[in-house]
Amino acid sequence: MSAESIDIIFNPWLRTLLGLCLIGAVFGGAMLVVWFERKLSGDIQFRLGPKYVGPFGIFQLVADAIKLMTKEDLIPSKADKLLFVSAPIALMGSVFMMLVAIPFGAIVVNGVEYPIVATEMDISLLYIEAVSSISIIGAFMYAYSSNNKYSLLGAFRNFARMIGYEVPLGITMVSIAIMVGSLNIVEIAQAQSPIWFVFLQPLGFLVFFVALMADMGRLPFDQNESEEELVAGWITEYSGMRFGLGFFAEYIHLILGSMLVVLLFLGGWNLPAFLTDITILGIFLPTLYFLLKVALVILGIIMLRWAVPRFRIDQVVDLSWKRLLPLSLLNLGWAIILGIYLGV
């Protein structure tokens, strides 16, 4: 395949088609992650369903999907119906807008690299950070419209958590941008050949990973749901597919967050040139290599759920403002020094 052919493939109209395919791929990936987490949790907790329903428990996922799609769609009598119906749209809208700017790998032909991304923009890092914040509004719409005090309490916890962790998360991302001299996430991934940024900014990686875990609301930071205290929190009053969309959005955020970890710190899709110079390998290998690293990050995040005790809200806030924020500022200073040394 020549470079000219690749240019034709990536024209604006076909980029739209590519974007739709990526959306389908992410939904499929989210279903796979749901199955894997349920299977792993079933093995750890000796739950019968995810362990024995079909080969490898795969039919448990099908049963759950049928249950969500056929369950009665309830709306509380005193709920704000417009917000109640709009909340899943806002939450999924945040996910779709993030998808636009995140590359899913690359194709290398004749030594030229073509990132697989719906839209490559110069400020993609800021764009991703901005549109991911819309999910906070979506969660608040879920809670406020439900007319349920436990849901609203979950939403306010979500605000406290997100405000606390967005700051160190944003500072760490800016530290990477300063060192590279670009806010383009594709250029940041390409700049990690041959040295991954986790080796140049190990402190930044630690801060980013912990803040990302909190940003995604994963255990041990599940303050907005916290079934033990808030009766499922912000999503208590939802049923059927409206609940399913909120549940699904969390898993898609998990996939996209894991991609950011790989793109910013773990080398992206970069491989030695002697591998990608072979045309057939250059077309498939970088993307497979990238997706393998993403899968390993997802596995690590799922395993952490069963290895770390759940934090209280006061512990979550303390960790953010008293530990992660000073460490992120320290890492920012280190990134500036590195940037000057590297001549950026």
Automatic annotation (TrEMBL):
<keyword id="KW-1133">Transmembrane helix</keyword>
<feature type="transmembrane region" description="Helical">
    <location>
        <begin position="251"/>
        <end position="272"/>
    </location>
</feature>
<comment type="subunit">
    <text>The FPO complex is composed of at least 13 different subunits. FpoA, FpoH, FpoJ, FpoK, FpoL, FpoM and FpoN proteins constitute the membrane sector of the complex.</text>
</comment>
<keyword id="KW-0812">Transmembrane</keyword>
<feature type="transmembrane region" description="Helical">
    <location>
        <begin position="82"/>
        <end position="104"/>
    </location>
</feature>
<dbReference type="InterPro" id="IPR018086">
    <property type="entry name" value="NADH_UbQ_OxRdtase_su1_CS"/>
</dbReference>
<keyword id="KW-0472">Membrane</keyword>
<comment type="similarity">
    <text>Belongs to the complex I subunit 1 family.</text>
</comment>
<keyword id="KW-1003">Cell membrane</keyword>
<feature type="transmembrane region" description="Helical">
    <location>
        <begin position="324"/>
        <end position="343"/>
    </location>
</feature>
<dbReference type="GO" id="GO:0005886">
    <property type="term" value="C:plasma membrane"/>
</dbReference>
<dbReference type="GO" id="GO:0003954">
    <property type="term" value="F:NADH dehydrogenase activity"/>
</dbReference>
<dbReference type="Pfam" id="PF00146">
    <property type="entry name" value="NADHdh"/>
</dbReference>
<dbReference type="GO" id="GO:0043738">
    <property type="term" value="F:reduced coenzyme F420 dehydrogenase activity"/>
</dbReference>
<dbReference type="InterPro" id="IPR053455">
    <property type="entry name" value="F420H2_dehydrogenase_H"/>
</dbReference>
<dbReference type="InterPro" id="IPR001694">
    <property type="entry name" value="NADH_UbQ_OxRdtase_su1/FPO"/>
</dbReference>
<feature type="transmembrane region" description="Helical">
    <location>
        <begin position="165"/>
        <end position="183"/>
    </location>
</feature>
<feature type="transmembrane region" description="Helical">
    <location>
        <begin position="195"/>
        <end position="214"/>
    </location>
</feature>
<feature type="transmembrane region" description="Helical">
    <location>
        <begin position="12"/>
        <end position="36"/>
    </location>
</feature>
<protein>
    <recommendedName>
        <fullName>F(420)H(2) dehydrogenase subunit H</fullName>
        <ecNumber>1.5.98.3</ecNumber>
    </recommendedName>
</protein>
<feature type="transmembrane region" description="Helical">
    <location>
        <begin position="124"/>
        <end position="144"/>
    </location>
</feature>
<dbReference type="GO" id="GO:0009060">
    <property type="term" value="P:aerobic respiration"/>
</dbReference>
<comment type="function">
    <text>Component of the F(420)H(2) dehydrogenase (FPO complex) which is part of the energy-conserving F(420)H(2):heterodisulfide oxidoreductase system. The membrane-bound electron transfer system of the complex plays an important role in the metabolism of methylotrophic methanogens when the organisms grow on methanol or methylamines. Catalyzes the oxidation of methanophenazine to dihydromethanophenazine. It shuttles electrons from F(420)H(2), via FAD and iron-sulfur (Fe-S) centers, to methanophenazine (an electron carrier in the membrane).</text>
</comment>
<feature type="transmembrane region" description="Helical">
    <location>
        <begin position="278"/>
        <end position="304"/>
    </location>
</feature>
